UniProtKB/TrEMBL annotation:
Pfam family, one: BCD1
Entry's Gene Ontology BP terms: box C/D snoRNP assembly; maturation of LSU-rRNA from tricistronic rRNA transcript (SSU-rRNA, 5.8S rRNA, LSU-rRNA); snoRNA localization
Extent of Low complexity compositional bias: 242-258
PROSITE patterns noted in UniProt: ZF_HIT
Name used for this protein in its record: Box C/D snoRNA protein 1
InterPro entries named in the record: BCD1, BCD1_alpha/beta, Znf_HIT
Organism: Pycnonotus jocosus
Function: Required for box C/D snoRNAs accumulation involved in snoRNA processing, snoRNA transport to the nucleolus and ribosome biogenesis.
Cited Gene3D superfamilies: 3.30.60.190
Domain HIT-type span(s) in chain numbering: 1-35
Length: 266
């Protein structure tokens, strides 16, 4: 058992392939690794390991994708005038704030998840926001985040050693025990080729709206919270959009697997 290292393993997780001896150890490994136990149907399989079962699995996966896409296309909400007006309003209001907001077709996960709204009375966005903490393999989804809230205040419930939730604080211990000056907030630059992933660094002291101005957002913002002191290969562009002075050819995003999982959708 890879959890307790005491008993003989009886089970193997379809998702992360970890061995466990009991239901208790299965639950512990899921909690520790944020594993849902569901087999990843899109995981890479080398040609040498490819079997008839993999072929059958791929065939069934494509059939499921086809059915999901067809059902989404037939759904009445797709053709609803109210839905189209809402999306047009969101994109138009975002454009007025110098934000290029792009929406995905119905059926994509990010389209279904997105809960962003615009309050005309307050003239304010309430964003759907995703926070990713790569050093702890953790991510959190926030809903209804006002656009005038600073990034520092948004992160307080997660990495502030005093104000953060005890459970979250323990999971993000590497962040809460590090100096706040080491925390960097990055956002991926959209509309770039996959082999040229770059990030913009955001200002924690400024509001969410100010940080999003002049940027392209697909459905909702996704922020990566990283530490300066830990080695990472995320290439951050300068304020003028130029490449950093020292940039080796071997640099690539350490989060590519996470992002591929986000965009690999039906």
């Amino acid at each position: 058992c890879e959890t307790c290292s005491k008993e003989e393993a009886k089970y193997r997780c379809p998702r992360c392939m970890k061995y466990s001896c009991s239901l208790l150890c299965v639950k512990k490994h899921k909690l520790a690794l944020s594993c849902n136990g569901v087999r990843d149907k899109t995981a890479f399989v080398s040609v040498n390991e490819f079997t008839d079962l993999n072929l059958l699995s791929d065939y069934r996966f494509l059939e499921d994708v086809g059915r999901t896409a067809d059902a989404a296309a037939r759904h009445c909400i797709v053709h609803s005038p109210a839905t189209k007006r809402l999306l047009y309003c969101l994109r138009n209001k975002a454009r007025g704030c110098n934000i290029e907001l792009k929406t995905l077709p119905v059926g994509f996960t990010k389209r279904r998840e997105n809960s962003t709204t615009f309050n005309s009375v307050e003239n304010k966005f309430y964003w759907h926001l995703k926070l990713i903490f790569p050093h702890c393999h953790a991510e959190y989804t926030l809903k209804g985040v006002p656009d005038d809230k600073t990034l520092a205040d948004i992160l307080k419930p997660y990495i502030d050693p005093v104000e953060s939730d005890p459970v979250v604080c323990q999971r993000l211990k590497i962040y809460t025990t590090s100096p706040q000056s080491d925390v960097r907030i990055l956002m991926k630059i959209e509309n770039r080729s996959r082999n040229s992933v770059r990030y913009n660094e955001l200002d924690a002291s400024r509001s969410l709206l100010d940080n999003l101005k002049g940027k392209v957002i697909i459905e909702y913002p996704t922020l990566f919270v990283v530490l300066k002191t830990l080695k990472n290969d995320m290439v951050v562009l300068g304020q003028d959009g130029s490449e950093p002075a020292e940039n080796s050819d071997s640099e690539s995003s350490s989060l590519s697997s996470v992002e591929e999982g986000e965009i690999r959708d039906s």
